[in-house]
Structures
1.
Amino acid sequence: MLIYTIRRLLISIPTLLFIAFVIFMLLELAPGDPMAQMPLTIPPEVKEKMRLALGLGEPWWVRFPLWLKQFFVVEPQYWIDNAFGTNFADGAQRIISFQSRSPVFEIIAERMPQTLWVVGMSYVVGVLIALPIGIISAYRQYSVFDQAGTFVSMIGFSVPPFFSGVLLIVIFSVQLKWLPSIYDTTHVVSDWDSFVFQLRQMVMPVMVLALQTTAQVSRYMRASMLDNLTQDYVRTARAKGMTESVVVLKHVLRNSMIPVVTVIALGIPAIFGGAIITEQIFKVNGLGQLLIIALQGNDIPMVMTITFLLAVLIVMMNLIADVLYGILDPRIRYD
Amino acid sequence: MTDAPLSAVEKPRNQWWDVWAQFRTHKGAVAGLCFLIFITLFVTVGPILWDVDPGKLNIRNKNVRPIYMGLFGSDVKVAWANPMGTDNLGRDIMANIMAGGRVSLAVGWTAMILAVFLGTLIGVFAGYFKRLDGLLMRFTDLVLALPLLPLLLVMMLLFRDPLRATFGPENGIFILIVTGIGITSWMQTARIVRGDVMALKEREFVLAARSIGTPARRMITRHLLPNVMSPIMVSATLGLATAIITESALSFLGLGFPSDFPTWGKILFDSVDRMTAFPERVIWPGLAISLTVLAVNYIGDGLRDALDPRIRGQ
């Protein structure tokens, strides 16, 4: 298992390098000029100097390794320096955003908590709703509850977040005036009232993202439970006189969770992608919104870094899912 | 079919009749098919019957509410000439929904066909030719590891202007969106087709065909492709649903078609700013997208059951 994990980790290095190269070359083709927003009164020779100052003068085979070095060497050094007060980085050039002229990772660190808070919370809520629905749907297959669950998950698959989010705003913010439509990220939770406010502003974005998760995870949970409920060991457990709750919740559930856990791990990158749209609807100033702003402003280092971070997340989650599968299910042997 | 009673000699039936008979028993799928036909007619035949130019401005007649709002209060501005109301520039919303739906559905179908074609091609090649398998599947895994939505956004932004210059504003964006969605969503089809082709390759009828010297080209088209038709069709319905949603998402993020060119996602995006005063303008296109995708998903569900010979005929 350990050897398998190490091998997978080693394989993921060329994969990530290739992905970084694809993203870099795609951005390299960009006809958009980061200097396009500058006033036209700037003389051409000054403009040329500004381009050089942005690091655009060098050809791509110089800039791509430089970016890799900055991403994998310089940025971790700064990170360690910040954490332990050392001086590894020694003033080396960091990845600088074209738009704000500040280090990309500092901006990402500012935006990260909002996204993590909304996305993470919605994923937890979605999974927590999905598991019982899946279990009951499978246990009472073809019952009214099962049919309703199927229908709800169909809706979850079909209604895109930009419509469900807008619909929730129309109903709960515009018509009923219960919940705020804009997520206020400057809000600080200090007492009970502000905590309630935080809860109220989180309900809608979390629910929109959770609907997607619930739809997917509850389907997998149901299918997995159905596979296990007909197994021989379930009959044995019942024959031994175990109560129904022990049979279902201990024997069947634990075995059914094996594929579901991997599905949950694999779904994490997808929900970050979905957050791009949800953040746009509820005006959350998280990573997704940062990406959109950077795209519109031709901020190539920012787009490159955020996209690559998402790719790292996908590759890592794939690896974690495969390793988890091997750990949880002793029948799986990778070696 | 082997265990059918021998006494009942029926006329030999095409297997697609059996599929259709099974499909009809799935109520959701039939409802979905009816809705898809309805919405297709609505956006294709509709503009012929409802002969209003979707782009025609009529400032005097702006912000007309839909007809049913007239029931609740007499002071609401409604007009029979605009059953779904008009927007802030006085454009007829019903005509816009029709025009937008035509684009959304066209993008969905074309992108789906492209994705399924690519997926089938790569899947069949990887499954049939052992030498290509490792390479093609490694490539599929790589593409699956790409963050697709951000890359699609990047592609939209980068290639918008050159394609617009070459093919004109509307066709350029159409080609861009269809290609973008197509080349980012073929991977699932490829994996499924590869698995099925590999399993089929071990069957006796393939061995028999090979023993009489069938060349690889005819082997694929005559023997393998017809047998992987059902998983391809199921993933095609899923692909249609995702393509419609992706196109609307791109339009919603402001990176799709130009602003005077309506699609469902674009109309939704343009109406969000005024949704406090005119919520119905958000609801119409949103409902159209959601119901179409729901219908397509149900059709996929029904097709999966109908094409599975183990379920069919029970």
2.
Amino acid sequence: MSTVVETRDHDGHHGPAKGFTRWLFTTNHKDIGTLYLWMSFIMLFVGGAMAMVIRAELFQPGLQIVQPEFFNQMTTNHGLIMVFGVIMPAFVGFANWMIPMQIGAPDMALPRLNNLSFWLLPMAFGILVSTLFMPEGGPNFGWTFYAPLSTTYAPSTVNFFIFSVHVMGISSILGSINIITTILNMRAPGMTLMKMPLFVWGWLITAYLLIAVMPVLAGVVTMMLMDINFGTSFFNAAGGGDPVLFQHVFWFFGHPEVYIMILPAFGIVSHIIETFSRKPIFGYSSMVYAMASIAILSFVVWAHHMFTVGMPLAGELFFMYATMLIAIPTGVKVFNWVATMFRGSLTFETPMLFSIGFVTLFTIGGFSGLMLAIVPADFQYHDTYFVVAHFHYVLVPGSLFALMAGAYFWLPKWTGNMYDETLGKLHFWLTFISVNITFFPMHFVGLAGMPRRYPDYALQFADFNAMISVGAFMFGITQLLFLFIVIKTIRGGKKATPEVWEGAGDLGLEWTLSSPPPHHSFTVQPQVK
Amino acid sequence: MSYIKKLITKLVLATSSALSFAIYSAENSDYNMPVGVTEVSQSIFGLHMLIFWVCVVIGVIVFSIMFWSMWKYRKSKGAVAADFDDNFWLEIGWTVAATAVLIWMAVPSTQVMVKAYDDAEGEINILVTGHQWKWHYEYMEDGVSFFSNLSTSQEQIDNKIPKGEFYLLEVDEPLVIPINTRVRFLITGNDVIHSWWVPDFAVKMDAVPGFINTAWTNVPETGIYRGACTELCGIKHAFMPVVVRAVEMEEYDAFIAEKTVLAESERMLTSKEWTKEELMERGESFYATNCVACHQANGKGIPPVFPALEGSEVALNDSAKHIEILMEGIQGSAMQAFGDSYSEVDIASVITYTRQAWSNGKNGDGVIVTPKDIVEYKKRINL
């Protein structure tokens, strides 16, 4: 992609406002992107601290540190915070920073809406986390909050949880509307849809998924609210309701949600692999079609989370076949990344290391996903640590690695300073090793029969659980190094060139801007040939 | 240099032999899916290993090409990037290949699934009901029924005494089934969703309130098979294991006969005249099994979720309300209705016990509730 860019000096009076109001009232896509990224970074440590409590309790059999009641609150809030408070907002942060810069726009299409979408989130998480300090304790029914455990049998703080989910949902929907509007209306002249960067494609598809499924989530929590407070019986069998209906509605949201957390990651990793292979991405069109097919298929596979709920045979077989189909586009993506590296000219800076880690370990998560799709085998895997291993492999070395890779990749562009490469590589290797010590043995304890969400377990699982806990503590401490590297880069370092990475100037519009970029990214639209 | 080469060769050899050993032992170890004892569980194990090896082969091929490319085309060795970015036939080729592998895997999966999912009548049919936090078993043909509670002591869980061999995998009364007989399980839930899992039978089925799911097994070998609840069901989710004892048909018949006699004598107990001491003794053991999880051994509960019984107005001065709560439960709370599941003697004795235990005996009205009071209550409700 080659471009023509006019640079123009920026008027001094038109910069960001000073002090706290800069952040409170900001309508600038970069400032809002930064807010999203810092919020998810903070929530990563909050959710991570909860994981540390879980692993400390599971270090040995028996109850030592916390009681089951609090343990259940930890597993529930760890899941909710990592999904809704870390991975999703971090990708929105990347979208805010990168989409205008990648499509040659000055800002997002709806800047005030953008401000609102962000500031709703701290409210939502403030409400959620505050429940932990209430007398009855926070939500304790798992992040999937199956009724009737989350309705008839829930602590009364469940109402705060429901309200918090509503607010998060509004934020996501508003954010998605903004992203779709920006991408469809503000692309530089000449940038047709099939010339868009893959990260933009990933987010366009993700935003449609969000608009489609967030209202479903809002619907299901509203039905809970009615059951709990207004005497309806949507999910109460005694009143003629159906507890399984809850799961169908929840997973109709939940499965697309899984791809919401991975499609933008596919985009980031594609950019990094082509940059450090010094060779354009292999099979651009098939990458786009693969993301689109994954998104469409995600609407017809939801019940593979419910294989043991007692569905009829035809239903079980349909959802097994549909789920297996997803392996095809996902496989195509992995093949394309490998083919991009083939006959390239490779270097291994930190973003590339994280991306290679992503391709390798995400593929392992994909393999266990394929195993889980096989219904009869799933009878043995379902709700054991094998499932925990699977989704952590796709979410931690999957989504989270892509976020870290993207952070290292674009930090020099955002801050104008290069990060410390030695520390970056140290961070990668410590993370890569500890992530495998943590999550790989989970496959074994799961196959051996340890169910998930257990605060205590039989003695044969003890050795591997101790190992998992050690890995988890290592992983947790290592992320403090990441925080240190990010702060160090913001405060100074070797100055970055506009191109940052060798040859990147031809690979995306963001590399034609100065580092750090001007306040209103592109004030004159570039021309894409 | 040659030293380094030798070292590398040795390392590669050591790693690959360690890896193949690891794979061999994984397949036969406690850290793989159990092969199980039934025909279905063994077919599922076969399916699991087949898929596993398919994944390994694909993984080895893809990762070898990737790591070889990373090695061969590194810039530090002077690699210059080629300039291709697609190849139509290659892309069609690997899409078709992936599809073919999936279809090839779908065939045996479907066959095993059809076999596993057969809801025809069993020679013996057992109603399995998940309760917070115990299993209830009812033999449909014989009318025999009982609860199966965790028998691991709280001291073991709290690390006060050493843990036994079957820590958290032992119950007071296991389910007993005969071998070489088709047994069908009808599975349902009483309060929240539970899930009944016995890995050696490859039976895992959710116990959903308002639904009756079916599963079946035919066990060829006698033995004790241990499993667990696998759907989050509240604070004691990890403490309601499943234990099944598979026995010869004669032993099974004897078991049913003994249970039938026992049930008859339980019914007789209702009309017996009970002393306070007898009720207290029986009530204390009932309380220890069924109530301590929430209301705690000292009767202080875990407020505000699980209220204290010591000093509660109902337990002190309102025996009528006390009976009603035990029989009907409290709507919208974790307090379940015990009336349908337990005998009049059990209910009367635990009420008497909680009215006398701790400081309640000296602070309250001291009313003794007898099995006859419970019978009276039932008559009144039915009118």
